[in-house]
Specification:
This protein is mainly α. The protein has four helices and four strands; from the N terminus they run ααββαββα.
Length: about 160
């Protein structure tokens, strides 16, 4: 029974998605350090040069005997906005651009065919030529995308 427990645990740990998730968390933590440094060491001094003060922690609202430190919330919101902007323009947009360039688009089936009798262009689904009225052979069905990629032919119908 203990052997089955460890076998199930081992199978769980060696599943691809668990390992991928672990790698993503580790890389996310490392990337977080880079983005946080960019915000703290580059963006905040630029904000300070423009606005005069990069930190809102001194903004406090007094309600009766309590203090609401709204400045800390502003700091967190500004940091989030800057980090989201950096992630979007630094990672998401370039990755989207890269994937669009690399992604292979499936071939598009032609919408027209040539009439063998009069050599005019007619729709693929046409059963007669609109120009010479000659009967046309039925349109061939397009191959399945998986079959087109693998290069296998469909089995003949019986």
């Amino acid at each position: 029974m203990l052997k089955e427990f460890f076998k199930g645990f081992r199978d769980f740990l060696l599943r691809g998605n668990v390992v991928d998730l672990a790698v993503a968390v580790i890389l996310g933590a490392a990337f977080n350090a880079i983005v946080s440094s960019l915000v703290k060491d580059v963006m905040n001094p630029l904000i300070a040069a423009t606005v005069g003060k990069p930190d809102f922690s001194s903004v406090v609202v007094h309600v009766h005997r309590g203090e609401i430190q709204i400045g800390n919330f502003f700091n967190a919101a500004v940091s989030f906005f800057i980090e989201a902007t950096v992630v979007y323009f630094g990672i998401v947009m370039p990755m989207h651009y890269f994937l669009q360039r690399v992604k292979k688009h499936p071939p598009v089936a032609p919408a027209t065919k040539i009439c063998p009798e009069c050599l005019s262009e007619i729709p693929v689904a046409a059963t007669r030529c609109a120009h010479c009225t000659q009967p046309q052979p039925p349109a061939q069905p397009a191959p399945e995308p998986a079959q087109a990629q693998e290069g296998t032919a469909a089995a003949p119908a019986s």
